[in-house]
Amino acid sequence: MNAPPLVFDRTDPEGAIAEAAARCSNAGRWGADDVHGTLNFLTPEVRVAAATLVRRGVSFSLAQAFDEHGPQKGWRRRTNPVHSMTDTGTDAEYGDQGFPHGFGGADDLVSMPLQCSTQWDGLGHIFDHGRAYNGRRASEVVTSAGDAVTGIETAAALIAGRGVLLDVGRVFGTDGNAELPDGFAITPEHLDATAEAHGITVRRGDLVCVRTGRLARARREGWGDYAGGDSPGLSFACADWLHQAELAAIATDTWGFEVRPNEFDGAFQPLHQVVIPHLGLYVGEMWDLDALAADCAADGVHAFWLTAAPIPFTGAVGSPVNPLAVK
Length: 327
Fold this sequence. Notes:
Blueprint lengths: L12 H12 L19 H8 L7 E3 L20 E6 L1 H5 L13 E5 L7 E3 L16 H4 E2 L2 E2 L12 E8 H5 L12 E2 L1 H11 L8 E5 L2 H8 L11 E2 L3 H8 L3 E4 L17 H10 L2 E4 L4 H10 L3 E5 L10 E3 L3 E3 L1
Parallel strand pairs: 7-9, 8-10, 9-11, 11-12
Antiparallel strand pairs: 1-15, 2-3, 4-12, 4-14, 5-6, 7-13, 13-15
Helix pairs in contact: 1-9, 8-9
């Protein structure tokens, strides 16, 4: 992509968001009833072509662990998963389960926010001035009963196709490592230069994974403010790049996808406010891209088959996911 540089007034987030929303809107593009947004770019033909990328048969889980040792500290009532056993081996040994002929088993449950670890942001997750994707009123999309229109279950069978890793951390890393510092704003120029360095072209319908190295640093130094604090991430200037690239979805190894602190005075996640309710773009966060990135660097191949189906919780605005990259 060769999107022109975007100049915006850092003192006017309201104006910049409105202008970007007008330029980048996909409202009505696939009809008034559309609930899939940019996943419409991921067609059967795109998937068939992506299937040819499996050459070695090696696979990588791009998920962080889902356990009590995760990064969450309670910000916005997000906590780490709580795993409990409802039946155990001890119950089975002592015959407390009520089954005949020595049959026994174990069962468990998990209590967790749906966006506490590796996850997708669905199209009902973010609104702009009370409007959801495709121009719908937010109050008519998401109620106390959940997202009745664009719930995450609508994407359950769709997110599988050509994955592309853009390892911006490795290409532009500072201090001699493959990691970007907090506050590093990844611009369209950085994305294009990274693709060029990898010898790869981003195509319509791609599932793009952007590695910053932030997760690697958190694992080395401790979670700190990994979940909710300062971070490298995409610049607001990427809104047009994302629109023109016609991606199916994008994911990063950071908690919030875009650069923190944000690039405007008094703003909060302005790129989210454009790409989710206006582009209809699925956004993945807190993906673990490190092992995949090491393999891509070793063999020089940065495209792969990627399947990242959300758990179809009816009416949910996000979902945990265990993305699998296969090369």
